[in-house]
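Record filed below.
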Amino acid sequence: MAAQIAQFDWHDTPLGALPHWQAPLRTAVDMMLLSPFPSAVVWGAEMTVVHNDPYLALIEGDGHGLGQAFDTLWATAWENIGPWVFEAFNGGANFVENQPVRLVRKRIGGQACFVFSYTPLRDEDHEVAGFMHTVIDTSAGVDAHDKWREQALAFERQIERVLADRDQIWQLSRDAMIVVTRDLLLQAVNPTWQRVLGWTEDEVRGTAILELVHPADRAEVEVAVMEFVHHRGLEQLETRLRHKDGHYRTLRWTATFDGTLLTAVGRDVSQDQDDALRQLDNLVRASQRLDAVSHVAGGMAHELNNLLSGISGSLELMQRRMEQGRLEQIDRYVSMANDSVSKAMSLTHHLLAFSRHQPLSPKPLDINRELNAMEPLLRQVLGAEMRVNWELDVLPWTVCLDVAQLENALLNLLANAREACLGRGLVTLRTINTRVQAPSSDKRGVAPGDYVALYVCDDGHGMPEIDLARAFEPFFTTKPMGHGAGLGLAMVYGFVGQSGGHVWLESEPDQGMKVCMLFPRCLEHIPQPPQQPVPSVLRANGQRVLLVDDEENLRLVMKEYLQERGFDVCDADDARSALERFRHHGPFDLVITDIGLPGGFSGRQVARAMRMARPEQKILLITGFNDQPLEPQLANAPGTALLLKPFALSSLMNQALLMLGE
């Protein structure tokens, strides 16, 4: 019958497929099959029957009763046994010996007198889900009856003891329980293990426990296990284990060793160890204080960008006149002016990053791979006497970031670390998958979800609490006059926030600094890097360009430069004029338009209107203040590019040639 139960198609019965049966049901069936007398497990509200071989002699017909309803099998005797069945479902065990039931044994002939036993069975929630039906043949007399009765009662006690031990200790425990061999191979895990870490027992049985331990904790775990084996173990051990989804959970373990196997009980303490949640209050206060500053910084950067772009373009043209010999002895002043403009351009980029309005070009990426690619540049910033410790997650989740801005943020952080360590110290770069489960009490706090954490730690002089509260403010610096503008951390704050993440600082005087950044997990696939075509010519050949910008000085400078480089340029100062020239003076090989245009009609709308009339139109968008990201249908469309102000006029020309060469 055990073989028939395994082969029987349970899918269409109320019990469902055999692999999905609850553990208490499986245990009861195993015990029932060992019984020497007729027994059946009756489970669920539909009273589905699973029986052993001796039980077949009681069933009418030539088949078996697997999967049938108990009340159907015993319909002829239901009037006598029905009340005892309902009592069993109410939790009452009973041995009905004063009301024997007489049945005709068709399989073996003749009549027999039977006594029924009903033992309640409980599910994983410790609720009565069925009963064990035990049938005793009392026809042999009182002596035989007493013998079978004693065996039945002993069998009932055995079932109750097994079920209680398994349900209350192993299955119903709120702590993860594991059994590990001397070789650190997992032999058994309880259901709580799966709830905490996602791995089923079949998936991890025979697996080395160290494969699931965080790389930074493996040495500590190995030492702890050796001490447990020699009965010198610590009372508790905290370690991080990898969840099936890829993040890590922190468990606090206690263990015993019986000479062969190590049994450990672990409590999930991830909630207490979640760095992001512990910093929530500071994060909320910092966000509230910085919102107003962010708005002012964004407005300043927007106004300055157009002015600086015009100045930069004018200086480039002056330098070109000098190279042509039309002006004399002004090269020194032009060089100084260009140097000042370069610094001003860097300043505005930092302001825009802090204000979270800097146009980004995010893409799915492997943060470990990007950090490894940046390593030579990062080491150059740190200098020869600074040491770097890399603690990168084994399989980090994908994140969606602007690589250039990530690099810029790290350069700023490492420059700060070098100065804090006076040029000689240790910097640690750490990545780790993190899952935040508890909801935040504030909408600007850390929302529940999956994140990739990037930590930059140094062992420098640290920072007092009063300075930590202002560290992200633009122009705030603890450096001496002339040694920093105070925009590095402000830029990092803006970049992380604009990327959908969170950033905070942890530091104490003489205890070093820890910069904590959380970036949301991205579920997109990492694309293959495209091969950028290189323009084969440095001049245009009369290609027609429509140039749209409301800043007159900048527009005239760009127009003159493009014309000198061989373009045929038609310009406009607002959206309406641009669309008119597009309709009546086209077609144009390329449209260059600022995103921020006056009159309530933006460069985005201009681009969409032009694409409706001419879907293949190539469009180069320029901007210095992008408060809204480009729509995917526009940004991802072929023949579209974005150039950030302020830019060198040569960059504008190269981008135009690149697009026209596609």
